[in-house]
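Figure 6 in text form: structure in, sequence out.
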């Protein structure tokens, strides 16, 4: 709703809609709804500004075991395929004390795993620090690395994940914090988007193929048991077959644990939408299939390394495909199914991996 052309479409196509509100005015929804009901009129509540972070909004969570916690809103990167900075505004970080309070309450309620959310989590507090001219307002927690360290000390929380960091902001202190914090999962999501330096420049990603690979190498050297997942966009405007091969080359070298693959789609309001040399759909799909085949061959190979290993698995519930089995995830986010009783749900258990099946592993409880 922050996009003007979407507002116009709603008014034109759905004239019966009474309230139109954007992400920056979500906290005013009860008030807006009351006005519409009382005054019998239509209402539009859109703020075309960066907005503020409002604490205390109620959150409905689907799980009693895992919870997502937003640590910042907005984005300053302006990748040319992405609409987020235009509709969510610039980066704004929540105060450390508010984040820690929310996580402590989750721990008190029995939650075991926390995922920290942000468009670019590893630039947490950078904007706020710059605005305050390096004052001492944030003494103990003044960066993403120090936030991770603080959360790691909260009793009751057993696992910490985060998405999504940006490769250009992946500093040494964050790498060290991941290595030292025992609760921080060693599966790191590191978006690649493209493996070609020219395409990355067109995407405004601010790193090269070589810089990405060097970062991966540094992380592998300093973080024990590191595994990596990533995002890749296929068919960005102007991408040639040869440039796409660079993406395949990075995938071959890194051997990601998981790859989230996307076919580029145009988004009104982004620079990418206005670029010439849009790639035909049939070419995009051909490249996507080629990437998918490579990724699946690597997953099949990666899965074999789990056989006969002992894995710590957080049990999430019964399997979606077989109610007689329990299901959980490893540190590396692999789904594991196994035979067990329901009293194990919500607990961390040790499982011996006995077989692999592409998208899941099968385990057996260790006595």
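Output sequence:
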């Amino acid at each position: 709703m922050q996009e003007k052309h979407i507002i116009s479409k709603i008014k034109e196509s759905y004239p019966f809609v009474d309230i139109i509100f954007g992400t920056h005015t979500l906290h005013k929804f009860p008030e807006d709804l009351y006005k519409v009901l009382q005054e019998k009129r239509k209402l539009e509540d859109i703020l075309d500004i960066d907005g503020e972070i409002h604490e205390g909004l109620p959150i409905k969570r689907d799980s009693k075991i895992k919870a997502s916690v937003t640590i910042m809103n907005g984005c300053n990167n302006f990748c040319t395929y992405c609409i987020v900075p235009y509709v969510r505004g610039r980066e704004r970080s929540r105060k450390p004390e508010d984040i820690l309070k929310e996580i402590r309450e989750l721990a008190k309620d029995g939650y075991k795993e926390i995922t920290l959310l942000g468009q670019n989590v590893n630039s947490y507090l950078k904007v706020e620090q710059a605005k305050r001219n390096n004052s001492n307002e944030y003494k103990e927690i003044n960066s993403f690395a120090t936030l991770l360290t603080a959360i790691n000390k909260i009793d009751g929380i057993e696992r910490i994940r985060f998405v999504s960091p940006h490769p250009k902001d992946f500093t040494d202190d964050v790498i060290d914090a991941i290595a030292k914090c025992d609760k921080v999962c060693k599966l790191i999501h590191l978006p690649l988007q493209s493996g070609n330096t020219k395409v990355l420049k067109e995407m405004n990603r601010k790193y090269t193929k070589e810089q990405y690979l060097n970062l991966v190498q540094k992380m592998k050297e300093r973080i024990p048991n590191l595994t990596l997942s990533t995002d890749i966009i296929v068919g960005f405007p102007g991408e040639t077959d040869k440039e796409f091969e660079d993406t395949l080359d990075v995938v071959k070298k890194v051997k990601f644990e998981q790859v989230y693959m996307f076919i580029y789609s145009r988004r009104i309001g982004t620079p990418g939408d206005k670029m010439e040399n849009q790639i035909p759909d049939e070419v995009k799909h051909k490249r996507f299939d080629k990437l998918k085949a490579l990724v699946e061959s690597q997953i099949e190979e990666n899965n074999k390394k789990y056989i006969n290993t002992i894995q710590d698995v957080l049990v999430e519930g019964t399997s979606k495909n077989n109610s007689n089995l329990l299901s959980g995830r490893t540190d590396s986010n692999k789904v594991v199914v196994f035979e067990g009783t329901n009293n194990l749900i919500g607990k961390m258990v040790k499982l011996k991996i006995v077989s692999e099946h592409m998208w899941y592993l099968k385990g057996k409880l260790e006595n």
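Caption detail: The two ends are 54 Å apart (CA to CA).
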